[in-house]
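Handout, tutorial session.
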Amino acid sequence: MPETGILLDTHVWIWMVEGDRSRLGRKAAQSIERASRRAGVLVSAISVWEVALLEARGRIRLAHRIEDWVARALRAPGVRLVDLTPEIALESGRLSGSAAGDAADRILLASARSLGARLATCDERLLAFGAAGHVGVVDGRA
């Protein structure tokens, strides 16, 4: 299956939107920029939920109201929202035992697999799942 784009893990999405690209490796940032030019940057609906949760719990501070931040972030050039479909939900439940235990991470993994996309992340557990051949990844540290 040809790659349909790069799905951003929630932390990578926040860094890209907030202009904090220095937290990403050069190769990862370049891969995301190339995907953006093809309208191939994907953001899962679960990441919208995670950002809202992080903001509500005071774990992140955004420059704008959460509703405005999300609306702007999803209107960025080259970005497409990925819905949580029944197929993705089912796939998240079928992931092997070495997959992340966190429900949001499982949905991100299942979304990338279902879409034929690579997951851009710095999360060691998700990178290990990719290294084992279960999903394509972009190592955000590289």
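The second record follows below. Compare its token runs with those of the first.
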Amino acid sequence: MSYICATCGEKHDDLPSIGAHEPYQWSAEYEKDTNSLLTEDLCIIEGRDYFVRGVIHIPIRDHDETFDWGVWVSHKKENFELYRKHFDDGVQIGPFFGWLSTRLDYYSEDTINIKTMVHYRTNGRRPWIELEPTDHPLAVHQRDGITISQAWEIVHFYDQK
């Protein structure tokens, strides 16, 4: 999708995704903890808190593509272990409840602890995250979609950071 950006005036070809490398609760001190783990898709903090990485798809009005947020969601240990066990084998599991554990600074309202349902996909693809239908701007964007201009505005917000 080619687009002349109203924010920067440049031509863009591919809309990037914005993603968090770790849950909001993670800190560097956990790297030395043998009961903690951080990979590209999984996180355990002190053997008590469990997180999976997934994707919030935001529809772009009048386009076939979506704008994607790479986010982390908390899980009960049992659901986390089930996901880890079946990550690559094609067995369908879930969906499971989780709390959004990524702070998306683009939104003035905090995104931490928004209620979600985590829908698992097979063949090693990250789960898609469905937000509770509320009036939070992120939930509204997921429900109603955004314009291509809004998508590029979000991208440029993170370019400036």
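Points raised in discussion: The radius of gyration is 17 Å.
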